User: Fold this.
Amino acid sequence: MTDPSSDPSSDLSTDLSTDLTQDQTILLLTIAHAYMLSGKWPNWQYVVGQLDQRNVDAEEILRSLPRVGPRGALGPSYGFTSAPQHSLNDEDQVSLTIAAALPIGELRPYFAEPFLRTLHHMIDLQRSAIFSPTEVTRVWLESGDLARAMPSLKPEFINALPEILNGELSTRRGSSSIAADGSWRKEVTRDIQQYRQATDLEAYVATVCEIVDRQARQYTATPYSGTSIPRLGGALHPPQTLPIPAPESLAPAPKTYIDTALMEDLERAAAPTKWSLDKLISMAEELNSNYADDHPYACHMLLRAIVDHIPPAFGQKTFDHVINNHSWTRTDGAYVKKLREYRYPADDVLHRQIRESASRISMEDLPARPYVNALLQGLLDVLKTTPASA
Assistant:
């Protein structure tokens, strides 16, 4: 009989559950809030010190976090942190992966959504590259080009991107360089095409886990059963709201639906444009407020109102005309087309009359945030190119 301790597959962890303990959540919140306050990941000494104040062993909690793939040094793995699950030095930086935005929802607008937009921009770069039959062509993502192509990305996020890209399985391959002036470039390899269908956070994490699962098989002597990622209707379970009273120092930031930087850009665009944006901005603010408070009916009605409100600024009469006639990028076009399907639950909220059975509309029926942000970014781009006197 084989000794289980000698079997490499016995060290494999295949569950990236978002049902975390209080101490695991506090560890992730400590790292997340340090990043959101400074734009930089904290060192290990800081994290340990914060958890020591709670009489919590940070190293023990780090080791306990769910992780897909082997927990040892053998083979690829993926979890909520990019830190190895063994001893760290005080000066070592501890960062979170994009997956951490599943249990820590306030990371989505600060971290996960900008990354996903960048990821699909990289996919577009790779797919649109022109290759030579006689020479090897290398595709690059450059910081200056990215800032021009996606002006809603905050400069501090773009500055932090090299480290974020190198920490994700999806983008770590390929060479990179940082110049003395802080500009950088990152090679975009063909592997990134594996994430073409990962258009939201849940789909992205599921794709990473599936790839890790597949690669981990190559490092184990005995096949194992595969990932047991929690799913609901073919997708990852949404993060559960943990009944943990966060202390004031770690109180989560309000979650937003429409990107806050995009909101600021729309407000700045209001003055020079011929269009009155006061109603749009008010509805967007109310949508974010109702989203933070988990009011599904108000969210559905406000989003439907926004979608029906903006076609004239695109020079169109209806939202369908906006989808079909505006010059969208491949990724943003796919996002905006998804919003057409959303009209059905919005019609349900607005027009279904009272009945004996209960309503089944919930927050989960709202379209993914990248879809709405892509639409409003498209509107912002139009406003910037339309003179006030037009």
User: Anything to note?
Assistant: The chain has three domains: 4-104+202-237, 107-190, 260-354+362-382. Confidence is low (pLDDT under 50) at residues 1-14, 221-254. Residues 106 and 248 are 15 Å apart (CA to CA). The radius of gyration is 22 Å.
